[in-house]
Recover the amino acids of this structure.
């Protein structure tokens, strides 16, 4: 099967990370995956939510927000504030981002602080949620390194890096990292979030127009883990460079 952008079935779109895109953030990354671009910014507040204080919960907290900028799609997307409510898709995705990151953060080690992770889609061409998680993982690691440099914490609370990727079944073939046109056409839609050592954080799979079997699920899992390993390697390369030259944010 010839893919729309001539990639092989197991090939990622080109991926890049631009750091320091938001200088006032503790860590910020513009992640580009093909034509999808997401700004991920991390802010650290020296307090915790009231519910933690009321319930006597120790440690810190991490939460996320996700939005698509009005000009991120081919037709203008109204801002949530203009509609007076956050749409259901945005709520679902920001909860996914938050709980995915919390699985790899030692909230006790963070101390009584709140980490805000803001993911804003600059340009959407499929895979915005997976790009947001991948970029946010890197931005979080950078922000926590900054906390260590500032001697606010002894060691980074980030236990592992995570990344996320999409896959699907198109014309009977399993493919990795769907762009928007492919996402519209697939019979099965699949998203995977996993850690750098291949452990699963979240698996989402649904038949859009068809059922799927164990063999296809296994193939999507295999391709997903391969793609995540490549994304983690790209994150690690960025962090290795920062050991020599610290980021601006």
């Amino acid at each position: 099967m010839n893919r729309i952008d001539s990639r092989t079935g197991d090939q990622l779109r080109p991926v890049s990370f631009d750091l320091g895109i938001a200088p006032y953030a503790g860590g910020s990354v513009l992640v580009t995956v093909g034509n999808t671009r997401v700004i991920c910014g991390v802010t650290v507040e020296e307090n915790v939510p009231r519910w933690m204080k009321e319930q006597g919960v120790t440690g810190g907290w991490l939460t996320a927000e996700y939005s698509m900028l009005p000009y991120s799609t081919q037709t203008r997307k109204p801002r949530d504030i203009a509609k007076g409510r956050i749409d259901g898709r945005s709520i679902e995705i920001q909860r996914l981002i938050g709980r995915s990151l919390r699985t790899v953060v030692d909230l006790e080690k963070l101390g009584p602080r709140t980490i805000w992770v803001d993911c804003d889609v600059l340009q959407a061409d499929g895979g915005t949620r997976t790009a947001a998680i991948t970029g946010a993982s890197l931005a979080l690691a950078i922000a926590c390194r900054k906390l260590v440099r500032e001697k606010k914490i002894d060691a980074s609370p980030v236990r592992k890096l995570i990344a996320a990727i999409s896959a699907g079944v198109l014309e009977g073939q399993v493919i990795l990292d769907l762009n928007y046109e492919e996402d519209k056409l697939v019979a099965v839609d699949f998203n995977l979030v996993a850690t750098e050592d291949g452990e699963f954080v979240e698996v989402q799979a649904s038949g859009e127009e068809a059922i799927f079997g164990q063999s296809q699920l296994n193939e999507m899992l295999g391709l997903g883990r391969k793609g995540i390993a490549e994304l983690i390697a790209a994150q690690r390369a960025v962090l290795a460079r920062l050991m020599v030259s610290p980021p601006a944010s």
